[in-house]
Amino acid sequence: MSEKKVCKSICRMCGSGCGIEVQIEDNKLVRISGDKDNHINRGRICIKGSSAVTWLDSPERLRKPLKRTENGFVEIPLEQAMDEIAGKIKELQEKYGKQAVAGWKGEGTGFDQNEALMRRFNNVIGSPNYFSNNTQCNNGRYVAFYLNYGCWPQADFRNTKLALFWGTNSPAAHSYWTQDLNEGREKGAKSIVIDVRYNEQARIADLFVPIKPGTDAVLGYCVINQMIERNLVNMEFVEKFTVGFDELKEYAKQFTKEFASRITGVEEAVIDQMVDMIEEAGDQVCSWPGTGLEHQRNGVSNSRITSLIDCLVGAVDQKGGMLLTENHKRNDLTLNDEFVRELEPIGRSKYPIIDYFKRESHTLMLMDTILTGKYEGRDYPFKGLIMTAADPMFTEANTSKTKKALSSLELFVVKDVMMTETAKLAHYIIPAASNFERDEIYFNGIEQSCYLAAKCIDSGLQTEYEFLKGLADRLGAGEYFPWKDEKELINYIMEPSGYDYDYLKEHPSGVRACPVRYKKHEERLARGEKPFPTPTGKIELCSTVLEKFGYKGIPTIDDLPDYVKEPDPEYPWPCSTGARKVYYFHGRYRNIPQIKKAHPHAEVEIHEEDADSLGLQEGDMVKVTSKQGSITLPVKIMQRGTFAKGAVQITHGFADANANLLTDDTDRCPISGFPALKCVNVRIEKA
Ligand SMILES: Nc1nc2c(c(=O)[nH]1)N[C@H]1C(S)=C(S)[C@@H](COP(=O)(O)OP(=O)(O)OC[C@H]3O[C@@H](n4cnc5c(=O)[nH]c(N)nc54)[C@H](O)[C@@H]3O)O[C@H]1N2
Ligand SMILES: Nc1nc2c(c(=O)[nH]1)N[C@H]1C(S)=C(S)[C@@H](COP(=O)(O)OP(=O)(O)OC[C@H]3O[C@@H](n4cnc5c(=O)[nH]c(N)nc54)[C@H](O)[C@@H]3O)O[C@H]1N2
Ligand code: SF4
Ligand SMILES: [Mo]
């Protein structure tokens, strides 16, 4: 008799955290369907979620630890691999200093407990660094929001009157937002999509604004200028709860409709339409800046400017606006307060704002440090990298440099569930328990809820916690990893919330911290407290934190893309990379046959008139070349009205045409250090 059961959990095939029901037979995953009781996805799941069983059963699945030898990879026992890795860490730190080794956590295990664990590990081994995918993800917006509000707000799509989606495509990237927006639309919500492509988000929008890559800040400032001219600013809110309005107003003046239209390619009448819609929505407006804004030279300014539109109408912590949500209290695992960094972290001197808000090192600068042995001109040997849940060979800007740097390490350990291009460069590969094979907590901001992404089967594979605890034990730092397993760990994290592992397990569709409360800043003001958690206690249109570090306080547009200023005749086209497809997650899932069939290879998207001018037809092979490298791939013609003229787009993560062979790791936002992945100078030739 086979043993059958159903385990309710959270899908971790992407970051959306949909509730799932996992059918299990004899300790094997059989089928995955949506959990109707989970409010995030309300029973729906996408093709990635339903394909998890096939993915985890694929030939690339790692099950045995591997060690690189002269004759290629050989299997070795886990305990031996862990002993050897710990021995090498010790040796490298003794020889080169504590800064010579650090851990890197990628997108594969999310941001909650596994990020905190890796930070903790780095602290206890004496490294001043913590590396993650956030050098290219989220930190740009995080910093923008923290500069403005002092916290990370959530867009109330369910109750809004107007949602502005700037360079973000929720149907592909954050499916539950689409459901929230649809709920809002039933109550009359409208939406505007500002994007280089007529994406899935645009298909459900009331207004699509096609924009040239890298020019959003100009459009944003023009909208703000129009709002000021047309007296649409909620002056009562602005005077009571913000600082810096006069400076912002003065700076915005230069962004006339004529100027903005010329730079962005957006018609003046369309700008008027945008402002009309903002006027109609009153103070129920919410704007979401996505990676289209963040992966730019003006990344932080882009995201700040768009979110300031919400601040100027007073849509902050207000039903249908940008909510300052409350979630469960928890214990901090990082030990950041206990361990003072005496050594210099990589990136802090150049991007102090990231260090100030996130205490995070810079992965792109790490590659240069590995290759040169220097950081900011001073000796800085970096020799050992412990990487889990990341695949930088597909995701890091400038793949050629990344490969060179990772290949020159004395110790490179990769922990992953799959054999990846990155793992192929490692000295040791440690198979990871997938999220179905280990326990993890997951928080959702807008739901103000906590969930247990529960272990459903026992594979015997090593979890993230066991990996770091195993190394810490061997390095004499075991006292900092005292918990027996993930269950004990989760009990520790959740202690202040009053909920424990067992309670979360019994409530698989989520435990809400508290009901949503609006206008908390007004209550705080009435109590004589700071209304917002910024240094001035107000929303900082002009940031005192930026000024403290020598930047301008208001968001400024310091540098426009090259093709706008003065096109390089050798590389005249701006290429935006990495627009999400619902099927794939960065480099993942290309080994799932049903997914590969749906969208088999990379394409370069181009406006039909531009294709005509280059003599290109659908499917023609072209060579796309940047200063960093070139790739060859087929053309996808985009009809008039569905794409910005004068630009191209390539999604990343494909082995046959890896977009990051083109991207430039040195062309960065001066505040966040983000590479301009969404605006790379390229040339296009028929192959
Ligand atoms: N299926 C799937 N979902 C994912 C991911 C995935 O790989 N696959 N990745 C996850 C991660 S880590 C993240 S950070 C999020 C990202 O989430 P989003 O930021 O929503 O990512 P995209 O869906 O790629 O949307 C970016 C949009 O920006 C547009 N764009 C490009 N350049 C510009 C520009 O200069 N200006 C404007 N206005 N728009 C521009 C692109 O055309 C695209 O529509 O998605 C997450 N969700
Ligand atoms: N050109 C271009 N490049 C980009 C982007 C872009 O838009 N354009 N987007 C950037 C962004 S926003 C991000 S977030 C980064 C993401 O970059 P990465 O951090 O490299 O993320 P993934 O490619 O998702 O790699 C995650 C890895 O984790 C593994 N994994 C999955 N589950 C587990 C687990 O439970 N344990 C372990 N140990 N491993 C697991 C997967 O197999 C996969 O190999 O890419 C960035 N790169
Ligand atoms: S959107 Fe798809 S992959 Fe992401 S959590 Fe939901 S079901 Fe899983
Ligand atoms: Mo990301």
TrEMBL record:
Residues 4-60 form the 4Fe-4S Mo/W bis-MGD-type domain. InterPro entries: Asp_de-COase-like_dom_sf, MoPterin_dinucl-bd_dom, Mopterin_OxRdtase, Mopterin_OxRdtase_4Fe-4S_dom, MopterinOxRdtase_cofactor_BS, Prok_Mopterin_Oxidored. The keyword Oxidoreductase applies. The keyword RNA-binding does not apply. GO terms for molecular function: 4 iron, 4 sulfur cluster binding; metal ion binding; molybdopterin cofactor binding; oxidoreductase activity. CDD domains: MopB_CT_Fdh-Nap-like. It holds the Pfam family Molybdop_Fe4S4. Keywords: 4Fe-4S, Iron, Iron-sulfur, Metal-binding, Molybdenum, Oxidoreductase, Signal. It comes from the Bacteria. Belongs to the prokaryotic molybdopterin-containing oxidoreductase family. This is Anaerobic selenocysteine-containing dehydrogenase. It comes from Enterocloster lavalensis. The lineage of its organism: Bacteria, Bacillati, Bacillota, Clostridia, Lachnospirales.
